[in-house]
Amino acid sequence: GGGDGDGGEGGGGSETAAGADGGGIGDSGCGVGERGSDERGIGGHGSGDAAVTGDIAVTGAPAEAAHCFVGSHAHNIAAFDMATGTPLWETQLADRIESSPALSRNGRVVIVGCYDGSVYGVGREDGVVMYVYATGSQVKSSPVVDMATGLCFVGSHDGYLHCFDGDTGRAVWRCCAWSPPAAVFASPALDPMTQRQVLYCAVQSGVLACISTRIPATTTGSDERTLGRGCVAWTHDCGSPLFASPCCVPSASAPDGGNAASAETAETAVIVATVDGVVRCLRSDGGQVKWRRQLPSKKPVFSSPCLAAGTLACDSREAQAGRTTIVPSEGSTTMSDSNMKAVGGVERGKGKGEGHDGEPPRQRANRAGQPMAVLGSHDHHVHAIMASTGELLWSTSVGAEVYATPFVSACACGSGDHQLVVACSTAGTVVALEATSGTPVASLTLPGAVFSSPVVLDNRIVVGCRDDYVYAIDLF
Question: Would you call 338 helix, strand, or coil by DSSP?
Answer without folding.
Answer: helix
